[in-house]
Amino acid sequence: MTIHTYAAKEAGEKLEPFTxxxxxxxxxxxxxxxxxxxxxxxxxxxxxxxxxxxxxPVVPGHEIVGKVAAVGDAVTSLQVGxxxxxxxxxxxxxxxxxxLSGDHNLCQSAEFTIVGRYGGFADKVRAxxxxxxxxxxxxxxxxxxxxxxxxxxxFNPIVQLDLKASDRVGVIGIGGLGHMALQFLSAWGCxxxxxxxxxxxxxxxxxxxxxxxxxxxxxEAVKAMENSFDAIFSTVNADLDWESYLATxxxxxxxxxxxxxxxxxxxxxxxxxxxxxxxxxxPVGSPGITKQMLExxxxxxxxxxxxxxxxxxVNEAMDKLRHGKxxxxxxxxx
Length: 334
Ligand SMILES: [Zn+2]
Ligand SMILES: [Zn+2]
Fold this sequence. Notes:
This protein is an alpha/beta fold. It has helices at about 40-45, 95-100, 150-160, 180-190, 200-205, 220-225, 240-245, 270-275, 285-300, 315-325, and strands at about 5, 15-20, 30-40, 65-70, 85, 90, 110, 125-130, 130-135, 170, 190-195, 210-215, 230-235, 250-255, 280, 305-310, 330-334. It folds into 2 domains: about 5-150 and about 285-334, Quinone Oxidoreductase, Chain A, domain 1 (Alpha-Beta Complex), CATH 3.90.180; about 150-280, NAD(P)-binding Rossmann-like Domain (Rossmann fold), CATH 3.40.50.720. It starts with a strand and ends with a strand. Helix 4 (about 180-190) links the parallel strand 10 (about 170) and strand 11. The protein is about 25% helix and about 25% strand. The structure holds zinc ion (2 copies). One zinc ion binds near residues 93, 96, 98, 99 and 107.
């Protein structure tokens, strides 16, 4: 069997058709016939080798939705024909302390779907059964893809930080991640404040569930929020004035990073110490939390806002993500 993909042969290059022979299906593996695949900023980062971990050719695509095409001998949880999703991780060792305690996303030998493996800009993709998720009834397969990386990235800290419905939470950045964070936090019951430098996004942020909107380019407006939040999620890949955001936290508040700042971040320890505040970060969630997210979004009928491109226009879609401002996530479809 041959798998047909779109691949970058070298860093920063356009994607071109590329085929490979996957060999025999592993006993724990599931083969997915890809129907939809979201595009994430990490796809661009891996194509460009921004993190120095890329292995070429790179086949991007890790917000995958499709149908099970084949299962290995030992696969018990999924059947051929079922609608499934696959995200950033495609396998983990299943025997380290992290895998055994349900934190497979912290496994030090977990494999990324698009690094050292070929991803979902393809007609087929394979992964370990524990990282392939059945879609609950009621979810739209066309739009659910972005939940498998961007979505679980912002849902995971709701669980990790044990956020309550009574908590007041700020979200910095209303883009691919932030627009899903607003929906999740609002549906969770929190009082949600959107911070954005794009004042014209206010109405959309409110439609997505924000109760308040703060123009983050206005230092006075940020200062006015001092002592307001139990947690802040930063979804931007930018260096901001983090001291001013630490000041908006209440005692025991947490500034939590889901985006990656371009430069190292320094803060005054007194900004943390006096209110027993903290700074933290987290990756995409474990399989268990991914299942929890899927059930939650099915029950709450949440959906990312997406723009569709055909797979053949994958380079145009990548360009839009690099240079344009998609609202808010791009999905490739057949
Ligand atoms: Zn492990
Ligand atoms: Zn991603």
